[in-house]
């Protein structure tokens, strides 16, 4: 069995880490450079940095801030937000990112996944899927979760893998920030079909939720934000808890 990963997420807006509920009512959660350094020190397996307003504001990811975060950490670093070209990815990799995450741009131009995988390798390409129940079905949402599409979440997950994505970052908008647990049914349905890792995101509130998403959701990694930002759960303590419950993690 492969080691399960714990991944803190820095949702960044106007240079600050923020966190809300269901993608709304954002509040300040601290300095992303300081938080990134702290999580690396605490034993996080990876770090995700999402410039959540880049697409809405029609601008590129904040490269200099990415560079500052990268200089303070020694763990794999994924960056997303406003990425729409090979040039964008090159700039972020040069700034210290190890992987990039695309969402809205991939939905708009699915061929972008193919081109990035060909240019940089599938291991570099993470496709983020923001999903929410819409008109009774799981639908992909874009532009920071503000725009619903008619795209079926499960069909899209299958397509992005076929196009060369190396990993899926699956966020349940219905669960995001609620602290009521991950969307295990949706996660397991995608994980069992996919041949690439699936990162579950949205809903972590207590340590038991991580056991659930690994055992029942079949996730390869679990991503969380507010519980780490506001020190409700410490990464080292979480990993020891998971290990005691037969989840293989790197301590």
- Cα(first) to Cα(last) distance is 16 Å
Poorly predicted tracts of residues: none
Most strands sheet: 8 strands, parallel, barrel
Q: Spell out the helices and strands N to C.
A: EEEHEHEHEHHEEEHEHEHEHH
Strand adjacency order, main sheet: 1-4-5-6-7-10-11-12
Bin the strand percentage: 25-35%
Shape: globular
Output the number of helix runs: 10
- SSE-based structural type: alpha/beta
In round numbers, the mean pLDDT is: 92
Please bin the fraction of helical residues.
25-40%
Gyration radius, rounded: 16 Å
The counted number of beta strands is: 12
Description:
The protein has an 8-stranded parallel barrel, surrounded by 6 helices. The chain is of the alpha/beta class and 251 residues long. It has helices at 32-42, 63-70, 86-94, 104-108, 111-120, 153-163, 184-193, 207-215, 226-229, 235-244, and strands at residues 5-13, 16-21, 24-30, 47-51, 77-80, 99-102, 125-134, 137-142, 147-152, 167-172, 198-201, 221-224. The model has no long low-confidence stretch (mean pLDDT 92). It is 35% helix and 28% strand. The longest helix has 11 residues, at 32-42. The two termini are 16 Å apart. The protein is built from 10 helices and 12 strands.
SSE inventory with pairings:
Layout: E1 5-13, E2 16-21, E3 24-30, H1 32-42, E4 47-51, H2 63-70, E5 77-80, H3 86-94, E6 99-102, H4 104-108, H5 111-120, E7 125-134, E8 137-142, E9 147-152, H6 153-163, E10 167-172, H7 184-193, E11 198-201, H8 207-215, E12 221-224, H9 226-229, H10 235-244
Parallel strand pairs: 1-4, 1-12, 4-5, 5-6, 6-7, 7-10, 10-11, 11-12
Antiparallel strand pairs: 1-2, 2-3, 7-8, 8-9
Helix pairs in contact: 1-2
């Amino acid at each position: 069995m492969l080691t399960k990963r714990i991944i803190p997420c820095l949702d960044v807006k106007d240079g600050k880490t923020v966190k809300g509920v269901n993608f709304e009512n954002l509040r300040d959660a601290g300095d992303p450079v300081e938080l990134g350094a702290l999580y690396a020190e605490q034993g996080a397996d990876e770090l995700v940095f999402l410039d959540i307003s880049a697409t809405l504001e029609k601008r590129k990811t904040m490269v200099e801030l990415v560079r500052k975060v990268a200089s303070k950490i020694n763990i794999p670093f994924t960056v997303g937000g406003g990425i729409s070209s090979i040039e964008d990815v090159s700039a972020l990799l040069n700034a210290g990112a190890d992987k990039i995450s695309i969402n809205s741009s991939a939905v708009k131009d699915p061929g972008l996944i193919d081109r990035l995988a060909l240019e940089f390798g599938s291991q570099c390409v993470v496709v983020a899927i923001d999903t929410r129940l819409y008109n009774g079905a799981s639908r992909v949402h874009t532009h920071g979760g503000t725009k619903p599409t008619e795209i079926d979440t499960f069909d899209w997950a299958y397509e992005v893998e076929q196009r060369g994505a190396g990993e899926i970052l699956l966020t349940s908008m219905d669960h995001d920030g609620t602290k009521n647990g991950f969307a295990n049914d949706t996660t397991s349905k995608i994980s069992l079909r996919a041949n690439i890792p699936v990162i579950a995101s949205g809903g972590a509130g207590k340590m038991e939720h991580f056991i659930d998403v690994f055992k029942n959701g079949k996730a390869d990694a679990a991503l969380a934000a507010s519980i780490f930002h506001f020190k409700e759960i410490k990464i080292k303590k979480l990993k020891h808890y998971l290990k005691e419950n037969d989840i293989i993690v790197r301590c």
